[in-house]
Records
---
Amino acid sequence: MDLAYTPEQQAFRAEVREWMAANVPVGALVTLEREDGYRQHVAWERRLASGNWGMVTWPEAYGGRGLDLIQWLIFEEEYWRAGAPNRANQNGIFLLGPTIMEFGTDEQKARFLTPMAKGEVIWAQAWSEPGAGSDMAAIASRAVRDGDHYVLTGQKTWSSRAAYADWGFGLFRTEEGSKRHKGLSFLLFDLNAPGITRRPIRQLHGDTGFAELFFDEVRVPVANRISGEGEGWNVAMATAGFERGLMLRSPARFQATAARLVELCRAQGSRVSPGAREAVSAAWKGAQAYAYNTYMVASRIIAGGHIGAEASLNKIFWSELDRAMHRTAMQILGAAAELRHFADGEVNAWLEGYIFSLSGPIYAGSNEIQRNIIAERLLGLPRQGAG
Ligand SMILES: Cc1cc2nc3c(=O)[nH]c(=O)nc-3n(C[C@H](O)[C@H](O)[C@H](O)COP(=O)(O)OP(=O)(O)OC[C@H]3O[C@@H](n4cnc5c(N)ncnc54)[C@H](O)[C@@H]3O)c2cc1C
């Protein structure tokens, strides 16, 4: 792998940097977990799309720029370096988009991808159920076929953005009496359809962008099914791979946090303990290591390779790195960082980030489950519970 950038890549970086400098909102937006903040973030999605930056790796026909993964990494580096906001549509562009690209029909691509790239339709992921989180194959929500529609009944939970988003994607049991991974279908549904109730869930920080979803005989056209009936599990596993692998959490996000941490440590000078200094150094190295590893994987994918179970290694690495960085910042800032209602500016940003980092080892499949996957599929150890 050649780590030097080509002149074209450098020119692309300069173009992104210039656009971000002219367009990134000055000052932090209100959190995405509140309706006013959510609307601000959606406005930012649309602004990004106005520069054709919604999802740079997608074909131009679907609102992208047809760029490769290395250019995407460069885009992300400039995006986070510029301090741009979190993406309201991350579930759409990073998870569902690649899934539709791989498994969708031409009609579905035309119908769903462009509005996604333009930030016109914001998506929520609706997989988890009260009895099916880590054990996702336990999904019980049903979709019963009625002519050219499915009728959805059941409950989903822990759905990020679902309190305000426009559409959702999830797995439903389309074969009555089917068990585990069999008989599930991957369906897209309008969150404003009759029969859907959204109930916001208040999180640790008190905000309610998260929601439970209740389905009471919701009619969804069969044309909204991705891939074949009963083949939803395979499709969902590909989506989960995108989530844990390269897309959802690019290294640039953590490099930007590591750079802020170094600044914080410098600004606090001799007040920072030797232990915290070591943690800052470890964080910076960790973010760099993750970036190099991602460049290696991206180069392999461009050359025709794949990312499989090793996506689980990535997921554990970024979630633990993020938590360690924010914990170190809390340690450096001291007691003042814990008074949320009195915190402002940078202290508040660290505190909010710390609270969110605690969920990293849980969402996108908990780290315990990722360790099971690594043990079984990468190390070839016996399945859990096998005698
Ligand atoms: C911030 C956040 C955002 C989320 N966003 C979404 C979303 O947008 N859409 C969505 O569908 N879901 C979302 N989730 C839900 C998330 O995917 C689940 O919380 C997660 O999969 C764990 O499931 P659970 O909460 O049911 O916990 P459980 O499955 O009950 O697990 C509880 C604990 O037991 C451990 N455990 C369970 N089984 C095993 C096992 N076999 N071996 C070892 N340990 C085990 C788990 O790792 C965990 O520590 C989100 C969660 C969070 C925190």
---
Amino acid sequence: MWESVKEFASEFFVTGDPLIYGADVSIVLSMIAIVSVLTYFKKWGWLWREWLTTVDHKKIGIMYILASVLMLFRGGVDALLMRAQLVMPEMQFLSGDHYNQIFTTHGVIMILFMAMPLMFGLFNVIVPLQLGARDVAFPFLNALSFWLFFSGAMLFNLSFVIGGSPDAGWLAYPPYSELAFNPGPGQDFYIWGIQISGIGSLMTGINFIVTILKVRAPGLTLMKMPMFSWSVLSSCIAIVFAFPILTVTLALLFIDRYLGGHFFTLDGGGNPMMYINLIWMWGHPEVYIIVLPAFGIFSEIVATFSRKKLFGYKSMVFAMIIISVLSFLVWAHHFFTMGSGADVNAFFAVTTMLIAIPTGVKVFNWLFTMFRGKITFETPMLWTVGIIPNFVIGGMTGVLLSVAPADFQYHNSYFLVAHFHQVIIAGVVFGFFAGLYYWWPKIFGFMLNERIGRWAFWLWNIGFYLCFMPQYALGLMGMTRRLYTYGWDKGWFEMNLVSTIGAVIMGAAFLVQIWDIAHSIKHMKKDTTGDPWNARTLEWSIPSPAPFYNFAVMPQVTSQDDWHERKLRIEQGLEKPAKVELEPIHMPKNSGIPIVMSMFWFFVGFGLIFDWLWMAVPGFIGVLACMVAHSFNYDTDYYITVEEIKRTEAEAGRVIT
Ligand code: HEM
Ligand SMILES: [Cu+2]
């Protein structure tokens, strides 16, 4: 009996590595700490009522952002571990197996559990405010999306201490991700972690398309809509078409692994290249899904800090839609070496190069917006201006990679690693940082310290160039990706050393950002204006942070950059702050079902990973029960009284007459 318990435990828990034991201890300690703090301060009820059951888009957005910062930390630690192993030839810090696990979890976490939720966080906090709406179209669904993402992320992260991490790369190519070569539970953690959170992403896509098309303030026609909302729309259209492909692909891989299918195995008539085609039919649109909103953010910031209308509004909209369509026609550029022949490769090379045109249009539009503007360089603008050259280099190396015959040389080399980090860090992550600095006062109601913010900016950028520029050269010198060790004879030492130093500087930059937040909380400088940057769009017309109903009165929109125009009219005495008639506001009620249902999904996933049907089946019944319970719940909304609106507005310093 005791023996079998011991045997089970040694397979169930990951053992043998001091890093893991350290993680075990810190997980247990932080759980104890969190539970004791909540109990001591009697905060359980508050946590449940205000956060865990909320359907308020702003709070959901904040939870997304918080989760993504935690994941940035984990993904960043992974990155530093890898760079430590590569710092010099013949390092003995990580074993080959361990290195494989780390680049896999790093890639998955950074893209699916860091970039995606950071983006969804910004969608959530900002889009309804920009549209003059009271919430998203489906607030309950929105909460469910968040909790599904959260369950999926927790499931994936659990593989670090239970069962073992996946190690087949961030896209889990077969045959290596198939059962025959990868029998442990790591790959199943991968499938279920991504599957569960992916359903959440799909629902977010649907939710925001409907919100943008259907829930805009009166007068806000599509062609008057702020550019960030346009970018969200184009990104969500791509989500709705791309994510079902991911769901199906992973389902097929699951059938291969769990039921002995042969979709992607050569024996039995399957074909691994089929998986690789399918996963990139999702994977390439995915990178545009995360970069398009960053383009929207740059557009907002450039206009605000140049004190000018965005140059080329229509061409921006057009470019964004074209990018989201074209992103579905380029997937094979990830495997020009597959052997599909010159015609196929030529097609995908040309479509890839075509994307450079709308992207170039956008870059020129930003530059023309700045031209003759009264530019000021507060942190959001600093990030935006810093990103432009960075992103242009990333884009141009992308064009180099798209030349199919040349790609036979670049393929799977460090040239590629440098390229995709350049677009994904300088385009996506820095873009979301810019958005976070820009909207921070609106989200949290206080200003971030500008001086510390500048330090973070410079450290991130210097660290970035030091880390990734040498990798282009290393790639051309023959260093291949996913390589965990190399010899002294290669001549790669110096550049790898520089690269690791750059990574450490980025790590320091992250800490400076956390310090910036802590410092700013301590020296609380409240944003009493609601419009600290003198900005142009509707979200800045209400107090910071926005009251829970967002707009006390529905704004009547008459032009692009409506808030800017309204400020001008008031200044010129053409418009008096209007007398308004307050009406009770219709709001959705909180619900505990999303978090409970996602917990059941977690059990479904965990049960299937370990082939414990006694857990998976009840989990699934729980999911169905939650659906039924929600269907019969008619108590889903309420009205805020005029009195309460008046009181809330007065507390935010706004008098309503
Ligand atoms: C912040 C600094 C970062 C550093 C120092 C870093 C470093 C690395 C390293 C060393 C690798 C492994 C390369 C190899 O051995 O082939 C890697 C792979 C990867 N990184 Fe990063 N990374 C960073 C940020 C990011 C971010 C922000 C993302 C995405 C949002 C990202 C996405 C990926 C992906 C998808 C892979 C490929 C994993 C695979 O080969 O399966 N990285 N990174
Ligand atoms: Cu691609």
---
Amino acid sequence: MTDLDRDGAPSTDPLREPFTPGMRSNPPELTELTRSDEIVPQVLIPLEDVKTREFVQEWRNAAYNCYSSGHKFCREVCPVVIETRNESYSPTAFHANVVGMERGELTVEDVAADYVNCTQCGACELRCPNTLFTGDFYRFRTRTVDVVKAARALAVDSGVHQEGYRSWNARTAERSHEPVLGETPVGQDTVRDWADGLDIPIGGETILFVDCEAAFYRTSVPRAVAQVLQKAGYEFGLMGEQWCCGGPAAEMGYVDQARAFAEHNMASWRATGTKRILVLDPHDYIAFTEDYPKYFGADFDLEVVLIVELFAEMIRDGRLVPDVPVDRAITYHDPCRLNKRKGIWKEPREVLRAIPGLRFEDVDRVTQWSYCSGAGGGLAVEKPELTAAISARRLSHAGALDVDTLVSACPWSERPLTEAGDDVDIDVLDIHELLATSLGIDGGGSRGETGDRRFAQVRSGPPGRARRASGEPGTADGSEPGTADGDG
Ligand code: SF4
């Protein structure tokens, strides 16, 4: 029966008859719009380039999911967009490029340089409604990080190189390690130097994998980790031959190189009967939990243990009892690869809350809203000034709190964060080192040129904002550095 309005005419109230696509009773002109079974019909423009065609076929659905939404919520959380306000560097553009390539309007040469502008932090994926809404039902996730990795791989495969990436990966291939120290030689003869005097065997069921930045530059981090493990009576060994995990090469698109490194490390683990890998660096953790299973499938049957989670568990079980007070006011920097990409943010806070003397001012920003350091995804290789700007922004957020210290759980983030910390008079410390201090361990090793410069400053009196306002020694206003405070 047709509803009538007050005048007796047929009702036109849309609420009475809301339009539902696909209803048989829909007027034909509306049915017309929903007739096709395909939401996005396959474009019939033939792509001559086989590699581009395969790339487009793999990523077109993810691309159209974004392209047809057009809301660009991801811009609010993308560290590169926040900093540059450049639409070409946005996750939306990364997806739109795929659509352009499918239609034959763009080639990888046209867009390869844009894909440099991504730290692969994963914030966009968490912010994206395509993940939030449909993810609940279909476990669908807008895979922007993977699209960026695939686009960079397509570029390399097509002979389109970014000069920084190209030379960085060529030098890494030469040395089998990331050339984190510029021209300083790195290799198998020096990769275990960080462990000098700690009496750790090589090989065994459980292996501590120490990433390149930590093994060669910030050696105080692995030394602290090893000594905490020893204090807890946890048995472990060192890698027989350790090459780079291959994660950075994979992130920059040098996939064959990444896979060769992975195969070498797998062979080393097999040779030493390893069943478990302990990892202190979030970048290694991503490589071992996401890249390696893709390379080796079911053959990758090793357990991957993140050290900061292991330490949280040991504190819970009473195997570790931090009892030396550490007099600092801190906030915590969530490494993107732990927090945004793996959902690990509770355990580091558990570790920090167990350390006596710490005043913990959390930023109350986790998941997609937490701040990026700008150090990941190879951004610092091609655009160091952008990494520095993102780090500076992150430190300015810390500076708004009453803290004197930013604690990170990622060795890679600590160099740019520490440099940015100079401007706001905030030290950047590593969570593993801080825990070692509170366990009475004097770890030794180096924090690298950058870290040691900050660490040598006097830290006394009121924390953070109050000290900065008072202009006390150790502030960023040109005051003199003091002696090391022995805090780690
Ligand atoms: S939030 Fe997701 S769908 Fe929306 S523009 Fe960003 S990547 Fe695309």
